[in-house]
Amino acid sequence: MNKIHQSAIVDPRAELDSSVEVGPYSIIGPNVRIGAGTVVGPHVVIEGHTTIGENNRFFQFCSIGAAPQDKKWKGEPTRLEIGNDNTVREFVTFNLGTAQDEGVTRLGNDNWISAYVHLAHDCQVGSHTIFSNNAQLAGHVHVGDHAILSGYAGVHQFCKIGAHAFIGMYTSLTQDVPPFVLVSGNPAGARGVNIEGLKRRGFTRAQIDGVRAAYKHIYRSNLTLEEAKAALAQEEANMPEAAGEIRAMRDFLGAATRGIVR
Hints:
lipid metabolism, Acetyltransf_C_sf, cytoplasm, 4 helices, ten-stranded mixed sheet, single chain, alpha/beta
């Protein structure tokens, strides 16, 4: 425990691996668990029933595990769970979950969370995402792996953002975004497939062609969502090398609860 600064306040009931570093004037509450290699910078507050994995870094002035900003919360022992290898920059706020949902807010692994980002109660964020400065999630938002939210993007409660989607700067998002789709604007509109992101992540030409074909059925063919799902099912058979990506888009349409950005 010699890596804890003498000015930090760590509740004796907190469970910190011996390798955890805690900077000056930070506060760690009694129900917090932090895994090996994690670094907590100065002036960070970590409270609530919060579990943090290994090799995370929290920069100064973060508020992690505070009570939900929800009048329905009555002090229930809800949770915040953070995985491994995340970078969390200055003035970030992550809130606990609520009893009205799963009771837990989650952040996966290897996420880059820039300054002033807010994850509200019950958000479920996957792995390998990037949140640029001031991206904001309201309650109950789900974000898939490898999604990117640009600066000042705002997401309405209960929205879903699919894997590999890209949300442009200053976007006001009030509906769901299927996987691989690039959206921007206020109100948000679909602008195409996140092709550059897919290339950077090693998607093959056949996979990208499959995603583009699926996008055409959803956004360029004047089909209803039910008709688009049927067309995507046919494309899975026609384009076996991209069947997994097309199926992901079709499954997302079936799970969308707020309608999709179109």
